[in-house]
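Quick board copy: two proteins, each given as sequence then tokens.
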Amino acid sequence: MIKCVVWDIDNTLLEGVYLESGDRLPAADPGLLGVLRELAGRGILHALASKNPPAAAGYLRRVTGCEFAAAELGWGSKAEAIARIASELDLAPDAIAFVDDDMLERAEVAAALPDLVVLSPEEAAEAPAWPMFSPEAVTDEALRRAESYAERRRRQAAAAGFAGTREQFLRQAGTRVTIRTAGRGDVARLHELSVRTHQLNSGGEPVTREELDELISAGAHRVVTASLADNFGDDGLVGAAIMRRNGAGPWSVPLVMVSCRALGRGVLDALLAWMCREAASGGASELRVPCVITERNVPMRLALAAAGLRAEPGGTAADGRAVFARPLDRPLPDLADWVSVEGSQ
């Protein structure tokens, strides 16, 4: 799935060249403006990478009415500009499409970033009909994704000027994590998270809506969601965990996942601490989290280790998973006082 489209400006989003238009700046291309709005309505981010002055980004916002999650304007390499956008938005290159009218620019970007989807404006006009631009469902969280990135920039700026620890900043920022039992109304968002999360995902594969609906209904499992908000904004449902009950034996966690937008904001720590405490209160002897080992989910494995879960001897199984386990007869991880838990089973 494409999560972000990076646009050129001249003769692409605009019907002309920004710097060659004098006092009469060019209008937005009506066809691509429609594409811009259609994709934004599906929760797909937009960004700019163009050889233009920074003022052009402000003009594009005014003329399109679109909020761009990132803008790299200048006269350097567009491939390098797109790489910076990917880093800023925590996106892999294969989740990004780039649109430019210039064939040489497209060739340079395609050579430097071969996993990127590179399109001409004519191809971009047809993109809304393509599966990679068509998510199965559009959730409330998806619709405010661009807004959440703007909130993220303000949060990061505040954090950069804060002299205390990460925990102290989270507290000052009014961080609020809410863990609650999942319901059937959460299925669309949970499926979306299973498709879109990679850095903070133990499962490695999407979970279908049918599987999620069955898990939520089955008494053998506990499915919980985690929502996140702070003084900068409300991110909504950003994480979830599925825990399999097993009486006094080991309890297994088939899946724990958190949006990368919540990375470093205490959500995964809260979920793991809650699972340890919930399993212990249910009489479990041990908590076990099978985790697919990938290059991209290192943050997940670091969080598991921080919560006291250790990879079992024997390495990775044939299915690419290692089991992280923690006995529950020892002091359990603390649940921060800004974490609230709703509902029980």
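And the next:
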Amino acid sequence: MYISDFLKYCPNCQNKLNQKNNFFSCNNCYFYFYQNPIPTNGLIIYNDKKEILLVKRKFPPKKNYWDIAGGFINLKENLEESLFREIKEELNILIEKNKINYLTSVNDIYFYKKIKHYTLCLIFTYKINGQRIKNIKSQDDVSQIKWFNKKNIPWNKIAFSGIKKALKLFFASF
């Protein structure tokens, strides 16, 4: 079930809503609503050996599946702020802004509590070395962290199809 499945009546006047694709409108009070994807961020962290760091999800959806570090962008937070916050919360490290590179964006569906949410994840890459590697600790909603090379990625246990696409694109660039 998608959020749009619940949008039958106008929240202002209770009139029946008209729907066209992702656009909802009310002919009575002119209420408009666009169902747009929820923005998220993700960071592919890699080392000198061209291994990537994957995190194991501690909670649903996709509990115990592998993912990249990242998450949802909060209200009044820009993309960079959200990325720095998520990495600090999940891995206990601070990342250097000037070493982040944009890779791609991927769309996905985040199925949570019987509702399907459309997401748009902006994926970045970050080469890590030195002391930052030693400081990485799984915390927050991460149960485990592990380094993987291109040959041992657990493709059947990657949490989201969009993340699989981004990882394949990343490895193709090496």
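Board note added afterward: The CA atoms of residues 40 and 71 lie 5 Å apart.
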